[in-house]
Amino acid sequence: MTATPSLSMRAFRNALCVLRSLDMYDLVAAGVITEAEWVTFQEDPGYAFLRLGDERKDACWELIQRRMPAPLRETSELKGVLAMLKMTLEQAQSALKAQGVANNDMAVVCPICGTVQSMSSLVRAGAPKESVENYFGFSCEGRFSGVGPMPSSEDKSAAAETRRALRGCNWTLGGLFKLHRMEITYPDGTSAGSFEIATAEQAQALAAEITVTA
């Protein structure tokens, strides 16, 4: 028997459909995109949405809300999926400590390839041990192992499948595109992007794997 979709899942699915149906005139009028950006938005609305700044994301979200059925509007779980996760430095440090692993095994998740990684796994991939803290939560370990970028989801070739089985990708937060979903606010009031913090289970599993292969 197929389970009945939950309200939040239905809302998420509906929002994706609405996002794909938005036309250029409404998007431009709302300040979400410029006419020059329409082709890129049309090719991959989800990817384009993730690249928007906070103000333009909010404007896009308002357009989506207007077209969604009333029972599905303002679903908190859905809004949380699309919104940027923001933490203070103290909150982020507490969340990492709560993973219950050694400092070098505290883990984050790459926003592009989903690889769970720690300072230990970064060093294992080839990152310099003396400066690994600079890369943690900022650059994926694939930049050091040399695996290259993740293939397109449309690429079903054997080579692509073999590549997907490898850990990491070449993503870094220092590039032009801003696709991260988490930002950390520092004591001086400045904010910077970060990989999302892994769950305790993910961090502990990675730590155990590294211990076994060490």
Question: Could you give a short description of this structure?
Answer:
The chain is mainly alpha-helical and 214 residues long. The protein contains eleven helices and six strands. The model is unreliable at 1-5 (pLDDT under 50).
Please characterize this protein's 3D structure.
Helices cover 45% and strands 9% of the residues. The protein has 11 helices and 6 strands. The strands form 2 sheets. Strands 1-4-5 form a 3-stranded mixed beta sheet.
Features of this protein?
disordered N terminus; 214 residues; mainly alpha; 3-stranded mixed sheet; 3-stranded antiparallel sheet; single chain
Derived from helix and strand composition plus strand pairing, the structural class reads: mainly alpha
Question: For this entry, what is the oligomeric state of its chains?
Answer: single chain
Order of helices and strands: HHHHHHEHEEHHHEEEH
E-strand count:
6
Largest sheet, in brief, is:
3 strands, mixed
- The share of residues in helices is 40-55%
User: Radius of gyration over alpha carbons?
Assistant: 19 Å
Amount of beta strand: 5-15%
Mean pLDDT: 83
Which of globular, elongated, flat, extended, rod-shaped describes the shape? Answer: globular
**Order of strands in the sheet with most strands:** 1-4-5
C-alpha end-to-end distance: 45 Å
Number of helices: 11
**Which stretches are poorly predicted, pLDDT < 50 over at least 5 residues?**
1-5
